[in-house]
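From the thread on structure requests for the teaching lab: each student submitted one protein with a one-line request. Submission from student K.M.:

"Model ABC transporter ATP-binding protein from Aerococcus agrisoli, tokens only."
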Amino acid sequence: MEMNKKTKFSLAEQGHILKGILSFAKPYWKEFAFTFVATAIVSSIAAYLPVVLQRYIDEVLGQNAATIGITTRVAALYFGLTIVKVIIYYCRDYIFKLASEKTVAHMRNTVYHKVVHLGMRYFDQTPNGSVVSRVTNDTETIKEFWQVFLAFFDGLVNILTITFAMYSLNARLATIFICFIPIMLLLIYIYQRQSTYIYGRMRQALSSLNAKLSESITGMSIIQNFGQEKRAMAEFDEVNQRYVVARNAMFRMNALLLIPAINVLEAIALVIVLYIFGIQDLQGLAVNIGVLYAFTSYATSFFQPMGQMMDSLSVFQDGMVSGARINALLNNPEIAPESSEGASGKVTEGHIEIKGLSFSYDDKKQVLHDINLDIKPGQTVAFVGQTGSGKSSIINVLMRFYEFNRGNIYIDGQSIKDMPIEQLRQDIGLVLQDSFMFYGDIAQNIRLHGDYSDEMVASAAKFVKADDFIESLEDGYHAKVIEGGAAFSTGQKQLLSFARTILREPKILILDEATANIDTETEQKIQTGLANMRLGRTTIIIAHRLSTIKDADQIVVLKQGRIIEQGNHDSLIEKGGTYYNMYQLQTYSEAHEELDEGEIDAL
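Reply posted by the TA:
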């Protein structure tokens, strides 16, 4: 149930959402149980305190029987009960908030666990900012949502205890207060109908705001490079204003239906009570001042919890919307591919067989059609073709980022579906075109929190020829890496990516245009590292520069998801087909680039 499609819930849907939210509180039920018991005690004490003063006023002061001893005992009792109430209230509040924090932390971990196990299709279709909003903002809203249960329980217990106390003093006046409950229920009904829609709009606007912010920060270099600052600010302001409008609608609704409405009802009840006591006095009937004091005190205590309950409805509706969004994510069926039951296979030699493989990202448009390949252990195979020809799609399926439709892939005679995902990705080393670096230091980025010693990290860096530039840094392997590795060149980041991959000693190596964004001089420097990595390993290369794959055992030419040519460099050149044309065109372009550079140097 996606919140951009639905913002109103039936009672059954609300029950389902609540069930999902409450499931996270089970590990901490003792703490929550304590808070409810403490709430009942506090409410009982609060309801009894006006009775203490009422009896003192009517039975002691009204009878001119006050003494220092009696007054001291009454004051001590009142003060003692107040201190006990404060202590219990403090413990209740602290334990409840601590349990709420733990519950939300548990929920956030669960949501993040789901996120990291979602299939790639989910991230293809969902903006990053929306995912971030669900993991952070929505779970944080649930923290406040727990307060709703306490407020409702507190209000209910207060109403019951105060009602009992009022009936014990004057049943007629107590009935007047009870008559206001249907009016309160009507206000709650009206508020709930209006607030669900408004809070849905507000949560949706906040999600859009986060998505726009995430997109802008990620693409800031493009925005500034093309002078799009004004356009970006205008688009952000538009989304921001939608959120402001939704918030304003919430404020107007709360200002009308919450505390002001409660205060009006409280004033009406007080006026009625004062009017009745005034009529009794005019008629010459006895007026109990203590009872009058108690009922004026109960008027506030009776309506205040109702006001708190009404006020909590705003948080309740916000929490329902957030809860629905979280449930939708947790129940999203787009999970990452899973291994078959009892999967125990592993890569031993690196023999890859692709048989009749067909694949679609959206189950509608096929991007791979009946792919058949046989890659022997230790061979180097290159995939070439235009953008969208299916090169990366084969890798995505081989790495089990996506589930394939038809056909199968075998490694050493075992279907990759019969291999544990973790084992498969441990045995296959993938180096992508863009090397992502995490905040930390160089050693942490190579190790990635794996159980590898400093010596193993240094050995991996030396193996791929990354040790020269690392050791030239002031702090060496402990040199700081800022977010995204912005302080390092593309070539340096790629070398670190090579070291990260080779550290795990994969049996199969996949290079997804690993040198596409590196200049020719840097590429020549890291070719030695690449050659070392390929030794004794089955290697798949997605090629950008055809000159770098001339020594490949097989070159597979793809077009629109189909294999149209296959062979080594010499045989494909001799064939004079698509690969020949691509190679000639690229050779011609590179020759003219070198000529232009030579002319510039001469000048």
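TA comment: The chain has two domains: 11-330, 352-434+510-602. The CA atoms of residues 46 and 516 lie 73 Å apart.
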